[in-house]
Amino acid sequence: MKVPAALVTGLVGALLPMAVPAAAGPIATPTATAVTGTARTGGTALTMRRMPSPVAEKTGTIANGGRVAIVCQVTAQRITGTVRTTNLWDRLANGHYVSDAYVRRPATPIPACPAAVPPAPPAPAPSIPAPTPGESWGLPVTAGLVSGFRTVARPAHDGVDLSARRETPILAAAAGTVIRVVCNVSAGTCDVDGKPALRGCGWYVEVQHAGKVVTRYCHMVRRPVVAVGQAVTKGQLLGHVGTSGSSSGPHLHFEVHVEAAPAIHDNAVDPIAFLRSRGVSMG
């Protein structure tokens, strides 16, 4: 299914790693030998990474305008940022890295860091289990796909984004039991429209299904209509599409996890492939 480019632009990039937001990273504390700079991102938070790579593990954020203490620099992937285009990455006093493309700093010479160990490749997603006898699956919404599972641009995206309109009913993909009903946002409330600068899944629901499968439904417009411990049937209403949490427009972020709860990055699988294995096509 082809989706208008404007819609893709409006929605892709809406989410961060799911679902409980990481605590905001500490502003690096200056040391006697550190060069102090200022994060300049144009408004959004500057992401800190465990290694000098845009796909390395995210370790926190620094607010636009926040101070950073740079102890050394390494040469890595070239980034075009709001301050400069450069292949330099800054190691901060807290041991984490940010791209120098987003740091305004004096022209003071900064020493090169000792050679860093390259980031380990991401662990492969677990295999999709065979269907449990008698189980039946369907779509949570009928809508176009605007962002896939762990794409090159978004390697930590543990689900798919479906461009459903605000207030579209979100249905349980299969029978199961509700195990989580959560407001997940880094600041403010889930009862208002979110924005990309926030972190978190907004209002979301998790359902435990047969065969140790968990599904997650994010960014609901208001508190879900189900409660923890409630049994649901395939196609039962869980809530309605919205844009709460880290989101730039109404859509459903849908995840599938295997190997039982809790639903984490390491046990997420591609929802499209999972549903296909159950005879359900997602666009």
From TrEMBL:
Gene3D superfamilies with a match to the protein in the record:
Glucose Permease (Domain IIA)
Signal sequence segment: 1-24
Going by the UniProt record, its keywords in alphabetical order are:
Signal
Tell me the superkingdom of the source.
Answer: Bacteria
Q: Which residues form the M23ase beta-sheet core domain?
A: 157-260
Q: Name one Pfam family in it.
A: Peptidase_M23
Under the heading InterPro entries, the entry gives: Cell_wall_metabolism_enzyme, Dup_hybrid_motif, M23ase_b-sheet_dom
The protein here is known as Peptidoglycan DD-metalloendopeptidase family protein
The record lists the organism as: Actinoplanes sandaracinus
